[in-house]
User: Fold these one by one.
Assistant:
Number 1:
Amino acid sequence: MFKRVLTASTLLLCAGAPAAAADKNWTPPSTKIYAQQLSDETMKAHPELLSVTLHGVPPGTHDVYTMFAGSYPDRIGNPDDPDDIDVSKKGITIVDPRWHRTKDPAPKFVVLMPLRDRKGANIGLVVYAFKVSIESNAGERSFYLKALNLRDALARRIQSYDGLFAAAR
């Protein structure tokens, strides 16, 4: 009985902790990659964003769906959630107005959509999280169109999927 209680207590303590290296499914190179440069530049140019993240299967791996670049560097290498994998595999878009999520510190509008290269091929997943000042869906259409525009501008800068993992320019 004591062991069961101790284990449950340990799990509760660890649940709020950041992901440990053992929880990662990929380790980025020690130098900044081009995908991270694109993420950083997007965040700098678009103050309406809370975050932008890029996901997919890094070269040299198989079925290792992970976040490989983004505005939360501590999350790079975290395994993708099932909805992230669906977007990557199926090429679908998920529009997620997160007005009442208890774990989110502020309302936001999230769009998960296929990441594309300049030829238009789906090569992974890009997630845009927009700042929302009020809890309504009044801006839903504009957020979705903005996400499409951001993704299409990003695609023009992506020569190839493997190029995302090259050293930043």
Note: The domain at 28-165 is CATH 3.30.450.40 (Beta-Lactamase).
Number 2:
Amino acid sequence: MVARVEGNQSILSLSLMSVEHEFRVRGQLRTFKRHALLYSPGDQATHLFLVSAGEVKVSRYTTEGRELTLEHFGPGAIFGETEILLETVRESQAVARADLTMYAMEREAFRQMIETDCRFGFWLTRLMGERQARLENRLETLLFKSANGKVAQVLLDLALEHGNRTDEGTLIDYPITHQEIGNLIATTRETVSYAFMEFRQLGLISTRQRKTIVRDLERLGEMALT
């Protein structure tokens, strides 16, 4: 019997805790070491996943062999759902960016979950809409911003999501290399390093123990618009 949804309030009342509970009940707990490959392009899409601890990087490679990072998924995030819904093979690869614990739910169990309570379908639709909006914003960044503007935008996003206030500025408490930033914005590690050097010279950022401190968020935001 399919559950009915009585108005928007019933849809919005579905919490991430409810989704995580379903993954624990219907899924299988799996663990992976850092850098482990979870799936590759061409693999059959038999499961979708929920990250319990750690982080996953989902990326694609261009015909020239350059990596383009699509998303980083941390605790509480669901990934791998697109090919499940479209019934296609994997188009990207997923790698454990850190030691990883996650729940894997089979495609049929996922369908049963939605049939039991259709709020899960609405929840997933909203989730995919938010991801689509993020990808469109990233595409705009890739097409219309300068190299320095792209790097500045990444630093701003990281400062907002992982920033901690210090006497020197906003410490980005998130380990990321220049190569990984380049993979996010489809540019080279050398270009990212050059942008960092310019930002340091302008007094926008500084570094401490391989972590970046944003000293002037407002000016960095202006740089991100270029």
Note: DSSP finds nine helices and twelve strands in the chain.
